[in-house]
Records
---
Amino acid sequence: MSLLSGLRESCGVFGVYAPGEDVARVTFYGLYALQHRGQESAGIATANGSKIHLRTGMGLISQVFDEDALSCLPGQSAIGHTRYSTTGSSRIENAQPLYLEGPRGPLALAHNGNLVNAEVLRHDLEEQGYTLETSSDSELIASLLASAPGTTWEKRLGHVMRRIQGAYCVVGLTPNALLAMRDPYGIRPLCLGSLNGGWVVASESCALDHLGATYLREVEPGEALYIDETGVNSYKPVPSQRHALCIFEYIYFSRPDSLLHDNLLYPVRMAMGAELARQYPVEADLVIGVPDSAIAAAIGYSHQSGIPYAEGLVKNRYVGRTFIQPHQRLREVGVYLKFNPLRELLEDQRLVVVDDSIVRGTTTPRVVEMLRRAGAREVHMRITAPPIRHPCFFGIDMASRWELIASHKSVEEIRRHIDADSLAYQTIDGLLRAVAQTHDSFCMACFTGDYPMEVQLQMDKLVFERRPVRAGEKPEPVPAAWTWEEDRH
């Protein structure tokens, strides 16, 4: 993901049922491939037929786990999680997988997404006497699943899926089985693969590739899986709705070597850049992309326009999550901590700079300034996503609507704000041509305000619209007053 966007996805989930395999190590490498989906905390739970073993910690996968930690996680099945917090703050109590003892024994659970009825569920559980230990909506799912009525897991999974609303891909672990379920809209991705006679589920297919597992298919919207010694048991406890995969999975959340709708993302992102070149041509000398997610789109722009592509920004790939805050002077020029411009290449050049999105508009001006300091004569920004005007309630940290620069500024006003010579955003039609899918295949509410389900609009904890926004409706205009918040990278 690029530094410019300011968007952060929620989580990556992974699960494996493979007797005879070192499932803890398999899960470690699966999560390593999903590290881009969250860098705040990580965890692995394993099951050996009678007990569930768990380890979680704050930081990157490689910071939480070493050989000693993995050796303490025996079993024939496992689940793992790498987290970026959306619902629930960034603290160890909210690290996943979550573990609890239910009426039918121990259960571990990990969740990617965001529930829109979390407050209602929390109230109901507390009224029933449940003591909730975390602030995450994932604990609500775990508590519901542990106490769900029914004599079979098919019935219990169905009970939970009929109660929770929103975006969710869930992996769960009992002492003897691996569970998985995906919301009926399919907002977050989840796929199924095979591994040496066993089974793997993961947020993205790239995790399967790293393990030598075979990709089989996507877990369908509204589908639940129960995997044990008998194999994969598939259920459809709730009917699938209109498909609403988050369009940002295509734009940059998922890795370019992953499959979505059975399509490899890299050429799709090239097509996004080609669409920008067709719609918004400009005379320039070089095309550059902001690492990493915009590189494929920049190459596509270059191929379509005939303008040479160059790697104008070198990324420091060892700048990861840190608990040490930089000095104020470094914070002000923080873009230099992650990128270094190739001055000799950029000097006196007219640049097309391709990136995936502009959210708050606080970081992009610094990048434009950095390129000008490196000697660029002109900077023409091309954005592969349409303007983001509405917040997300399904697991993306997209800020409140007051903070979204496109919600209250025109494209020309944003161009002046970022100090670019020109600025152009992808159109929705151009985006759909690039992904070769129809509008009703995606959730694009952040562009249109048309949410696939009812949501309660909130700005941080401040509700500025009292009633839910129904599918097809447009939210009321935001108040005139708003404040900027510094991007946190």
---
Amino acid sequence: MKAYILAAGEATRLRPLSYGTPKLLAQVGARPILEWILDRLGKSKKIEEAVVIIKAGDVHEKALENYISHRVEYFSNNLKVSIEHALGWETGGDLSLALRNQENKGLLNKNEDFLVVYGDIISDVDIERLLNVHEKAKKKLGSLCTITLFEVPVEEASRFGVADGVKIEEDLYKITKFVEKPAKEMLPSQGKVMVNAGYTVVSNEIFSNFDEFLPARKVKLESYLFSNLAAKEKLAGYLSEIKMWMDIGTIQALEEANRKIYRGEGVIPPPPINKR
């Protein structure tokens, strides 16, 4: 199975660092963000290749190529890593373009499900468990997509994509509604809600109607694919007890991530909406 790492954004909120350093090579705990992600992927026996999606013409592409070519000297897992190009068309548009590019090159297996990972998230998501839950969701619910979820206090929820649904088993939900960064008035007044952790398994069945599910235009995976599948009851959720989750979206978040890594602490939510 392949994992596609979404990293075609321009990292404007990480400037001035991102002028000279690709976001994926920004360091947390003396390790590039990309290596945190690859290390997590390498722990799964089912993930054979990671495809890093970057914007065509990215000035940092050579730096990424150099890192990828030399990482085997320092890390021992057998994960293959490659680069694919997109156009900065948001998460859905970039994924669609990367998959189409892979198809044109004869590299896309339309009989195989695939994993999608955000390129600015450091997390301890159990990928093997996610893949197992996805298989169960396909058989029991007919789901086309399984998103990893974790719970946060409702006061933090507007920074995330929020899911609501019906509990099927201990960690499996049928998602009936998904809203990206909902307004506070759309949320419960107290308690916790389930939010998107940024690790998603997509069924190969979407290739039967590729243009409907992942159109080749600027579109967000979250507000388009997830929301549409939830409305059709074709979206599943894997509720995970995540102990580490860090959104490295800004300079301040990068600094806080380093502090928390060295202290052995947990979750950094995305920045408040008004700071984006």
